[in-house]
Write a structure and sequence with these properties.
Helix 2 (21-44) packs antiparallel against helix 8 (340-352). The strands form 2 sheets. Strands 1, 4, 5, 6, 7, 8, 9, 10, 11, 12 and 13 form an 11-stranded mixed β-sheet that branches. A two-stranded antiparallel sheet has the order 2-3. It is of the alpha+beta class. The chain contains 10 helices and 13 strands. Helices cover 27% and strands 33% of the residues.
């Protein structure tokens, strides 16, 4: 019967109207707070917009020339090919700031120091099959005197072997802080078929030849001085140039593509990515090796460079938003339920904590009696049974 009645009849909610200005003020105050909160979130977080994440491409062009006058390197000119042509992967570029050079290496048999070689006392300790991971070459099986107190295994390698030398301090290419880099970034938002470059429409060739990024005076210039980048990251270029490191160049695009509020410009920020503290890492900085090969008197030789430098990783993030009617309707529909909180709060206060100045005790009792009906289960069941018995006796 219950199911049949629910199909045949329509049920609606019964409301009690209480004539109280103070309760009405409380109700509309809560409604106002909820409405303001919904509007603030709607416009602050732009809940009326559809969002799209970006795809990006980055190219970087470094410019700068430096001259070293070190006792080891002698007077050498370092141009872009020398200090910045070493690729470090996608969306990254590397600038040499310091170097340790081993000149005139040729292939042959030579000794290794105790730090990298295998210490031995006889030829039996130098097996050809065993290779020390610290070694610079292939063992010949000979145990040779390194000095008056130590013997090491002879190796076939590029000789003379690179010594255990520390990076020069100050760095030989300390002047690299005056180098500049021109970063070109193109982004696209696929959902909106929208593309943009960090070279903005009002930038012409004349402007790009003379501009330099400055957070206060020229925050959108795509040309950066390396020293300024490191400074923006909170580091000292002179100190960082000795052993190198890794700096992030972050380009963030927060774009509003609505017609009235249209804005889509890049925001640049910088920070250091690697750990510089010697106590927290065994090998601070950033370095690697490469060689330049040549022939002298018909013999192949090379100059080995262990270079320290700064790797710059360009990271592009962002999103775009554009008005979408369905998003707006969905947001409004999902927030309508919050207005039901008003009824819960007012009913709770009226039934438990309303001060007599708000409404009289009789009104509160009358409201409670109308709003809530108390039923004792056992008594109610007894009355139902009695009525059913009487119905049975009266039936023929």
């Amino acid at each position: 019967m219950g199911l049949w009645n629910s199909i045949r009849y329509y049920n609606t909610v019964k409301y009690l109207q209480i004539k109280s200005k103070k309760l009405a003020c409380l109700k509309w105050s809560i409604h106002g707070i909820i409405f303001i909160s919904i509007c603030v979130i709607l416009f602050w977080k732009k809940e009326y917009q559809e969002n799209s994440h970006l795809v990006s491409s980055v190219t970087a062009k470094v410019k700068g020339v430096a001259v070293t006058n070190d006792s080891e390197l002698e007077r050498v000119l370092w141009d872009v090919v020398d200090h910045s042509s070493l690729s470090q992967g996608k969306d990254s570029f590397f600038v040499v700031t310091n170097a340790v050079v081993t000149k005139n290496q040729t292939q042959g048999n030579c000794l290794e120091g105790p730090d990298s070689g295998t210490i031995c006392s006889s030829n039996e300790d130098c097996t050809k099959e065993y290779t020390n991971q610290k070694s610079n070459g292939d063992p010949t099986g000979q145990c040779v005197e390194f000095n008056s107190s130590v013997k090491t295994c002879e190796v076939f390698a590029w000789c003379p072997i690179e010594g255990m030398r520390n990076a020069s301090k100050p760095a030989v290419l300390e002047s690299a802080e005056n180098f500049t880099v021109f970063i070109k970034n193109k982004i696209g938002f696929i959902n909106f078929n929208y593309t943009k470059r960090n070279i903005l429409p009002d930038m012409n060739e004349t402007y790009l030849k003379q501009c330099m990024f400055n957070r206060k005076t020229d925050p959108y210039c795509p040309i950066f001085r390396l020293g300024n980048i490191v400074q923006e990251a909170g580091e000292n270029f002179t100190e960082m140039a000795v052993k190198g490191g890794v700096i992030a160049i972050q380009i963030n695009w927060e774009c509003d593509l609505d017609w009235l509020l249209h804005k889509c410009v890049p925001e640049y920020s910088f920070r250091r990515l690697d750990e510089k503290n010697d106590k927290k890492t065994l090998f601070p900085g950033f370095s690697f090796r490469f060689a330049r090969y040549y022939k002298q008197n018909g013999v192949e030789e090379r100059t080995l460079f262990k270079v320290y430098g700064i790797r710059f990783d360009v990271m592009v993030t962002g999103k775009a938003g554009k008005f979408n009617l369905i998003k707006l309707i969905t947001y409004i529909g999902s927030t309508l339920a919050y207005f039901g909180v008003t009824i819960i709060v007012v009913d709770f206060l009226l039934a438990n904590y309303v001060h007599p100045s708000c409404c009289k005790k009789e009104v509160k009792s009358y409201y409670t009696g109308k709003k809530y009906e108390t039923v004792e289960y056992q008594l109610e069941m007894r009355d139902v049974s009695n009525r059913e018995g009487q119905d049975c006796e009266s039936s023929p």
